[in-house]
Amino acid sequence: MQRNQSSILFFQLLGFQHAQSLRYPLFCFFLLIYIIILSGNFLIMMLVLLSKKLRSPMYFFLSHLSLCDVFCTTNIIPNMLHILLCEWCSQESQMNMSKTNQTEAFEFVLLGSMSYDRYLAICNPLHYTSTMGHGVCLKLVGASWLVGLLVTLNTSLMMFSSDFCGPNIIDHFICELGPLLKLSCSNTSMLETLIFVLSIPIIVIPFVFIIASYVCIFLTVLKIPSSTGRKKTFSTCSSHLTSVSTYYGTLTAIYVVPNRGHALSKALYVVYTVVTPLFNPVIYSLRNQEIRKAFEMLLNKIK
Fold first, then answer.
1. Element (H, E) at 89
2. For the chain, what is the radius of gyration of the CA atoms?
3. Would you say residue 143 lies in a domain?
4. Edge-to-edge strand order for the sheet containing 89-91?
5. More confident: 85 or 9
6. Does residue 6 sit within a domain?
7. What are the Cα distances from residue 295, in Å, to 50, 81, 280, 301?
8. Which residues does the UniProt record annotate as the domain G-protein coupled receptors family 1 profile (predicted)?
């Protein structure tokens, strides 16, 4: 399993080696979560596709967010389940990492697009329909997928050109970029610089844009005279705000909080890669009356 005599192609993922006594309960737990994630996100995509009341830009973006969550979890959770059932697992980590990076980059840009949609709907409602047309939505979603693809292509090409001639053991259940760079025996300074440069348009700019959008939204909501009107208006973006807070909060904890142990690092990644995709369909379905009504109408048609 080597590229040549000194370059390693496959890596060993240790996974949850310190919780071997819980491997079967954890397997059942993650399998159940995976089934719920797939069911919830596929349900949202199906409702948006079939229901005429869910043809607005907000639900169009939500369907692509659900699609992204399906891709992300399908790339990660089946590997976690496999690792739980085997004591020593090999995996082509660079390919797995590139798929994960693509969905992460896509979701950052898409969350920014969703905040722009909420900004127009609340702060500029008279021009919302003409500004946020179907063509604009397609361009924003297409740009999100394209950004994810370009980020993946750049980092993957540089990772595949790197040599790995030392240890091939990663104390994790996911192929994270950081541990892979530490195992490389090549000069990774250029790759690290590229990752830092790409993080500005992919992570920082969407985050700043989201913050600015919600500042404008908050100021607009405060101008509404009735408390009922303020509550009703802000509730239209509460689900998106909750999703953004969960996504950026866990990501910040993973990459910013220093001196993390392996157990804490894995726990944070479980929250980021498993709980967040589970959380999205829950908050968008349980807290959204239009989705609940569309689901009830679908059940009535089936009956």
1. strand 89-91
2. 21
3. yes
4. 89-91, 11-13, 169-170
5. 85
6. no
7. 10, 31, 17, 10
8. 40-284
Which of 99, 42, 112, 47 minimizes the C-alpha distance to 72? 99
Position 192: which residue type? E
| Amino acid identity at 193 | T
Nearest to 132 by CA among 243, 184, 57: 57
- Give the tens place of pLDDT for each residue, 93-144: 555 555 566 677 788 888 889 999 999 988 888 888 888 988 999 999 998 8
How buried is 171 (Cβ within 10 angstroms: 0-12 exposed, 13-18 middle, 19+ buried)? middle
In-domain check, residue 79: yes
Q: Is residue 2 part of a domain?
A: no
- Residue 234 sits in a domain whose CATH number is 1.20.1070.10
Domain limits for position 39: 11-302
Task: Name residue, tokens 């690792």.
Answer: 83
Confidence of residue 5 (pLDDT cuts 50, 70, 90): very low
Q: pLDDT tens for residues 205-252?
A: 888 899 999 999 989 888 888 887 788 777 777 778 888 888 888 777
- For the question of whether the overall pTM of this predicted structure is more than 0.90, the answer is no
State how many domains the chain has. 1
